[in-house]
Write a structure and sequence with these properties.
By secondary structure, this protein is an all-alpha fold. The chain folds into 2 domains: 74 residues, no CATH class; 48 residues, no CATH class. Helices cover 38% and strands 0% of the residues. α1 runs antiparallel to α2.
């Protein structure tokens, strides 16, 4: 029998310090709504999703930087953001590992999404790519190189 989702799974009241990050989160949410309603005319199917991936990355990176780098928010507020899906817990977990500090999205490291069972082209360091190539863009999220 499937698990029934109740309102107890989410924390209702934001913890102390929420008022400091709320304007930025609201601004990113407004950008996300705008990106979702943007016209897809003249774009490839995957290109329509690139702005959404970018904003999702920005929102998660903002929470990650506040908690791990600057230590500006509490553990309670960080957990609130993770539990309410303001930030992506899986992406943040990858950022904590060596070699994945600048990862753009989780789809770029999933081998099943590529033709030859390897990582995305954006995960290849720029100095290892052929010099004759023009700009390299990820098919999944539009990243131009997140490996460093």
């Amino acid at each position: 029998m499937p698990k029934v989702r109740t309102s107890r799974n989410r924390i209702r009241q934001p913890p102390e310090g929420w008022e400091l990050i709320e304007p930025t989160i609201e601004e990113l949410d407004a950008k996300m709504r705008e990106a979702e309603t943007e016209s897809h005319e003249g774009k490839r199917r995957t290109e329509a999703l690139w702005p959404i991936f970018k904003i999702h990355h920005q929102r998660s990176r903002y929470i990650y930087d506040l908690f791990y780098k600057r230590k500006a928010i509490s553990r309670e507020l960080y957990d609130y953001c993770i539990k309410n899906r303001i930030a992506d817990a899986a992406l943040i977990a990858k950022w904590k590992k060596q070699g994945y500090e600048n990862l753009c999205c989780l789809r770029c490291i999933q081998a099943r999404d590529t033709n030859f069972g390897t990582n995305c082209i954006c995960r290849v360091p720029r100095d290892k790519l052929e010099e004759g190539r023009n700009v390299v863009e990820c098919v999944h999220c539009g990243c131009r190189g997140c490996s460093g």
